[in-house]
């Protein structure tokens, strides 16, 4: 073997050119070059080893953390939102689970083409597309957005088969909110909607950012908003191992979510139904309270809206319809609608006069049918052209005599009136547990100065005039109260001068433990008046439905109630022109008020009714109160809604 | 029985007589590491390991043949192999199969074949043959001719495009020139002009190639895009720590975070599961292989043998170094497999042919040495 090799080797060297110079030297030269590369190899491998030491020893922790965070995803588990029921346990807002088709926009290159393709297997309406676009514009920080909600089982199955064609599209089971009663009590119950940037800030202020991981929805109005933190619950956490594609491989640990608390409203949904039916097609508001506790029995804002429309993000057509309707269905009238109180202010002003000593109960004036300020030709007219003749305090309330109050206002300083009236809660928020309340206007000198402080106004605009006082004296002029304030004020009278914070929620129930926490009644203010003065007013108020302006509405009532009508003027009549409802455009007609409580001796319910452009208060608003009282006190359901619209009042003057 | 044992011994002697034990042990150890890693990288897919084992069988046969052919045959094969290689590269350029946007493959009856793999052996062979023929009077002219011999296949491979392989084959040619005694002045001059031409080269690079280089300079540039591979590989290695996460337990590997984990990035799988200790062992195995190849080269009897085995030795080193450096983030990402470990039959075959050449050279070494 060696010989063969040697022979071959010799033959090979025979081929080599003869003039080979110095094989030894050349060999040395070659070895030197090889050695240089040998050093290079050592250095290079040493460098590699150094790099491995750096990565695997020195920076090991850092990379381990990175690998862990690659591997482990923290997946929030959204808790069940609490259920909202009425006081008798009837569910008015609940959650249910449904499949949604969601798209992660960041993972889809051509959204429109993708949606076109999706629509071949799943029903996608133009409405869905529009809503999706809107969501896309509004909520950039969301990972995935719903294109379709409430998929049918068949659609789910069809998508599952074709899923590989749609990277970035997924079917998710989500909890939805449903409001079984639709528009009924919608302004009180409110609705939830997708979390927007403003909500994110709010959550941040609560220091609840972690708890809202994974939550897409939050209360936007009504009880859903104000009791958000009770209803939401505590988000659970699941640690899952994920692969590079973000798919969960297995669960490592799980902390279950804690469901939100159930909220029991003070509202009686059947009473609410009765009240809303009593309004018919008319616009308006009603707030009914328990005078002793502040519980809200009924809360009407007509027209309402269907809160179910908002849950998935309202589509533009519906939004436009709601937002631009002249009927303002989105306006929370009981809390944000300010209306002149009209004659409903009279019992309060009478009480103020008793309290200040300006009037005694028996002191009477003569009403010729008008009132004139000394030295002025202007006549403040009474509702009854010939006048009511001799009128004492009780009668002034029962027949709603304007002249009595013109005269009173002429003798009373507006700031004194302001001081007394604000004790009743006018010009300030009622403190109800629903957000967005407005304070209305209770005028005073300071208020007027402030109101007209702008550059466009001059001193003569800012000054308080006697005429202002006279107008304010019959609930016109600058006065503007909300229905909730009116309800709170009449409840205060009913409750012997103690007002309670109105609250929509009666109790909060922990789902897991079954514990229930009552919302305690909270006294806000006490009216500093003598009981006998209050009794004068209460007696006069009993006279109104018995023999006064609302007697017609309460014929045959099986209980004794107390109330006061009011008609708020929107339209200024020229001197000596008569108001005829039929001649005035519907939306400029007077607003009708009725504030009342019952039973008169031991009041269980107090309410304020406002019918927008309803005309005469006794005719439009008092029957609504009657329907509510009948149901609440006797369980009677009046079959037919009150007549829509208002016929011309018996007396066709500005007051009732 | 004794006769049977004697027969076995004769067969063994026949098989082993020109096979270098040191090289064989080191190479098989590395291949073994590769198979174990491959099993993990393919999520315990035995089929992949089997297919690699089949390629190993073929590679061993070819190695044995190359080790046993008379060295004259190697010399004679140089020119035809080189010519065939260039021809096949031209064929690729005209009618090659496009995979992943690169035209690198020739589809033959049985399967796909990368002519550039042939070139890895053919080019050093050709150059060694050329210098052997001009041994007595190697001058500047010869280096120019050699440069052309290098440039033609490198250009053909670069335009496939396959920059990594082109660079590697260019390097193998350069090693031959270097070992043949290319003047240091020229080497320095080449290095200088290469750096001067860098901006020009830059403009001729493909976008993805530029991206890789930019990403290398700053991996955070685009951690989910071009930097993804590099970042994930570093995470895999670093999270492996000293002892590793254990075989089949690499999270980066098994949760799909590692790209190309059977081929170019298989080292990250190994490093994640076996840690710093495993890496050190692998480095030592490579060093042993290379050291043995050095010894063989040093003792080679002819200039042809010296140049050829020197170039093959340095190529083993270069492949191993570039791949590990790339995976650990020391070099930009170029498509270079880890020798004897990365999945791929053609590469395994050409590497074992290289080992066969080394064994052939060893068998024909000078006997004058003590």
CATH superfamily of the largest domain in chain A: DD-peptidase/beta-lactamase superfamily
Average pLDDT of chain A works out at: 84
Beta-strand residue percentage of chain A: 15-25%
- In the CATH classification, which architecture of the largest domain in chain A applies? 3-Layer(aba) Sandwich
- Give the count of helical stretches of chain A: 25
Q: Percent helix among the residues of chain A? A: 25-40%
Largest sheet of chain A: 7 strands, mixed
- What is the fold named in CATH at topology level of the largest domain in chain A? Beta-lactamase
Inertia-based shape of chain A = elongated
Q: Which features does this protein show?
A:
heterodimer, A: about 650 residues, alpha+beta, Penicillin-binding protein 2a (Domain 2), Beta-lactamase, 3 domains, 5-stranded antiparallel β-sheet, 25 helices, 23 strands, disordered N terminus, disordered C terminus, B: about 375 residues, mainly alpha, 3-stranded antiparallel β-sheet, 15 helices, 3 strands, globular
What is the topological layout?
The complex is a heterodimer of chains A (656) and B (370).
Chain A: H1 2-15, H2 23-58, H3 60-71, E1 72-77, E2 84-85, E3 91-103, H4 111-118, H5 126-138, E4 145-148, H6 153-162, E5 169-178, H7 186-189, E6 192-194, H8 197-206, E7 217-219, H9 222-226, H10 228-232, E8 236-242, E9 248-255, E10 262-265, H11 269-279, E11 284-289, E12 296-302, H12 308-311, H13 316-324, H14 333-336, H15 346-356, E13 365-367, E14 370-372, E15 379-381, E16 389-391, H16 393-398, H17 402-411, H18 414-423, H19 445-451, H20 459-462, H21 466-472, H22 483-494, E17 498-500, E18 505-509, E19 516-518, E20 523-526, H23 531-547, E21 562-568, E22 591-598, E23 605-611, H24 617-620, H25 622-634
Parallel strand pairs in A: 2-10
Antiparallel strand pairs in A: 1-8, 2-3, 3-4, 3-5, 6-7, 8-9, 10-18, 11-12, 11-23, 13-16, 14-15, 17-20, 18-19, 21-22, 22-23
Helix pairs in contact in A: 11-25, 15-23, 17-21
Chain B: H1 2-16, H2 21-41, H3 46-68, H4 71-95, E1 97-99, E2 102-107, E3 112-113, H5 115-133, H6 140-158, H7 163-179, H8 184-196, H9 198-204, H10 207-217, H11 228-240, H12 251-254, H13 266-298, H14 303-327, H15 345-363
Antiparallel strand pairs in B: 1-2, 2-3
